[in-house]
Amino acid sequence: MSNLTNNLPVKGMRVVDFSQVLAGPYAATMMAFMGAEVIKIESRTRVDIVKRASPTRFHDINLSKMSITLNIRQPGAVEIVKKLVSISDVVIQNFRPGVMERLGLGYDVLRAVRPDLVMLSLSGFGAEGPERHYSAYAAIFGTMGGLAHITGYPDAPPTEERGPLDLRTGQFVAFAILAAILHRRKTGEGQYIDLAARDGITSLIGDVIMDYTMNQRSQSRKGNLDDFMAPHNCYPCKGQDKWVSIAVKTDEEWEALCNAMGMPELSKDPRFADSFSRWQNQEDLDKIIGGWTSGYTHYEVMHILQKAGVAAVPSFNSEELFKDPHLNERGFIIELEHPELGKRKVFGAPWKFANITPQIKRGPMLGQHNEYVFSELLGFSEGEIAELQEKEVLN
Amino acid sequence: MEHTGVNNSSKALTDIKVLEYAQFVSGPYCTKLLADMGAEVIKIEAPASGDEARTRGPFLGDLPHPEHSGLFLYLNTDKMGITLDPTTSRGKRIFRDLVRWADVLVENYPLGYMKKLRLDFGALKKLNPKLIMASITPFGQSGPYKDYKSYYLNTFHAGGEGYCLPGPPAWLLFPDRPPVKGGGFLGEYDSGLAAANAILFALLAREETGQGEYIDVSQQEVLIGCMRHELGACNDGYIESRASRALPVGGLMQCKDGFVDIIPLEARHWEALMELMGNPSWAKEEKYRWSNFVSQVFGDVEARMQAWQDVNDFIEGWIVKHTKEEIHKASQDRGCPMGPVFTAEEVVSSEQLRVRGYFSEVEHSEAGRFKYPGYPYKFSKTPWRLERPAPLLGQHNEEVYCKRMGYSKEEMVKLRQTGVI
User: Do B215 and A351 touch (CB under 8 A)?
Assistant: First the structure.
C-alpha cells in the first residue's frame, strides 16, 4: 500500500490529551494511530502513575503521540491551554469531576475559545450523582460494574481485573469521541461528553444484567464453563503452566475430538453420547481430555485438533503472542526503536483496513514536542519560552 | 428505499444506514452501538431459526422461547429485523439490493462463507462503491490461523488475558488450576465495540475520499489490544501471569458479607485508609510506613515482601469485620479507592446509576417490560436513548420488503412460501 492512498481518517485533527493512567491515554493513542495529532499534556510536577511504576508500560500505551510539559497549576498556564485548545478539535481529560472547572478550564471556558470543540470528561462514576467524587481505578469499576463477581472459579473468590478494563473503557471513549466528530462534520456543532468507566463495564455484561431485570437472578462465577457446551474448558499441556482451551458444540465435533485423541470408542460411551450427557458428565470428560492433552504442547494440541475441525486454542502468554507466527504474518507485531527505552515490540491497531495503514510510532519522550507546540503552533518566541521555563510553567 | 421510522434527528449517527448479517454477540453488539446512537439498522436473520442468540438464555422464567432471550433482547434494540436466506438466488438478489442501500455492512460468519455466497467485499463493492464492510472473525482474514475454529472461550484465551486470570486471592488458593475467561461473553462484546470504532473511522475517511472500505477485525487482536499494558512487559523480560497479579498492598479482600477491592496507590489513599481504620498502632511502626512500601531501597526484597504480607493481613483482619455498605462510602469519602464486588442485583439497584439514568425501561410486545442497561456516555447535544425493543423474528418484513423495496403483499407471501424470507 502506498502512502498516496493512505487516507488516515482523522488526519488534520488535533487532540489535547490531559488524561492519565490508561483509559483516556489509550483512546487518544487510537486517534493517533488513525492520523490525529495528539498532544499529551505532561508535567514533571504531575507524573502519570503508570509512568512512575513503569516507563516502558507507559510507553506502550502512549504510542504515536506528542508530549509537552506544562504545569497547569502555574499562573499563566491556563491561558496557554486556551490558546492550544483554540486550535484543537478534541480535549480528553480524566481529572476528578470539578477539577477542570476549578482550574478555569471547564467546558464553558474552552467552548468560548473553540465553539465546535468536542470535550470528553472521563471518570469512574460520572459527573453527577452521589458517587461522582469516588476515585476509581480499574479494579474498582470492575468490581462495582458487576464483572468481578462473574469472573473466576465457582468455588473461589471473585476476580479482580485492572489494565484491560481501563483499555476497554478507552474503546468507549474513542467511540463517543468519533460519534461526536461525525455529528460535528454534519452540523458544525461540538459537544461535551461525560463518560463513566463503571457504566461501560456493566454494558459489556448486558445479558447478565438482563437475567436480573427479567428473572431477579444474579449470576455467579462459571470458570471456563458454558451453559450447554461441553467439553468447554482449559486443559493442562506439556511444560510449566501451559494450557489449551477446547470447546465442543456439536456431535460431529465431539466425534472428531475422540478420533483425534485416538479414543474413537469414547464417542460411543453413553456418558458422552449427546451434548446434554456431555454437559452433565463434564467433570469426567475433563479428566479424560486433560489426560490426553498433558502429553502434548499446547501448540501441538491446537494443530492436531484444528486439523480435525475442533476448536482448540492455547491460553497464550505474552511471550508466545509476540513470537506467534500468525500475528507476525499479519503484521500485528511491530518493532520500534526508542532513544531511551531501546528496541521494543508493540502491537498494532485492533483492526485492519484495506486502504488505510494506521501509523504506529514510538511514544514521545517527556516534553519532546515543546518546541513544536510552543514555538511553531502557539507562536511563542525563544525568549518567552525561556521565561515560561524559568517560571516553571513549562515543567 | 424511502426513509421512515423513528425520529432520530437529534442523535449523533442519524442518516447512517447499516445492514447487519451477523449473529450471537460480536456483530449484533457492534450494530447495537450504532443503532442506539441513531443509525438505521436492518438486521438480517435466517428464516425460521433466527439469530443464534435467540437460542441462548437467559430466558424469561427459564422457559426457552425465541422472543424471550435476554441476550438477544439486549443486543438488538433499536434495529429493524427481517428474515432472509441469501443462499437462495432470490435471497441473494434482495441482499444485493439492501447492500446498494447501505452505508455499512457488518458480518461475523466464518472465513470464506461470504465468498461462497458471492457476497464478499470484492463482489459487493461493485454494487456500492461507497460500501464500508466489516468482517469480525476470531483470527482475522489472513495468516496461518485464519481458518481455525474458535468459540468464545477459545477466542478469549487467544488474547492473552485468560492466562492472567484469576489473580489473587483465587490464584493463591488454587495455584494449580487452569486460567479462566472473563465473565459472560466479554471478549465478544469487546470485538463488537472495536468494530464499531473501526466503522466510525471508516465513515470519517469516506467523507474525504468518497470511497468504501473493507475492515478486517480479528477478535484475537482486539483482545490483545486490551492487554497492551500487561503483555508489553514481555519486552522487559517479564511475563505476566496469574501469579504476578498481586498488588503490594490492597487488592481483593473478603469482608463480612462478600468482597471488596481496595486500591491504596498513593500516600493520601493510605492515610485515608489508616484514618478509616482508626489509626491502628501497627501503622506507626517504621517498617509499615507508606513511604517504605513505595521505596525500593527499604530493606531487602524479602523484608519488603514480609511487610506487605503483614500489612495486608492487618487490613484484611479489619475489613472482614465490616460489611460492604459500612466501609464503601466511608472509605471513598475519606479518599481511599474502594469498591465492593457487586452482584447484578446490586448493580441494578445502584443509586448512582439511577441518578445517571443508566437504565431504560423498554416494552417488548412478547417478552414484556424490563430495565435495560445503557451506555457509559452522556452527550450534551446528541443524547442516546433506547427507542424501541429488539425486533420479533421477521417483524419488519412488510416494512422493508413492501414499503421500501416495492414488493406487493402477494409477492411477499410467495417469498415466504419459497423459503426466501
Answer: yes
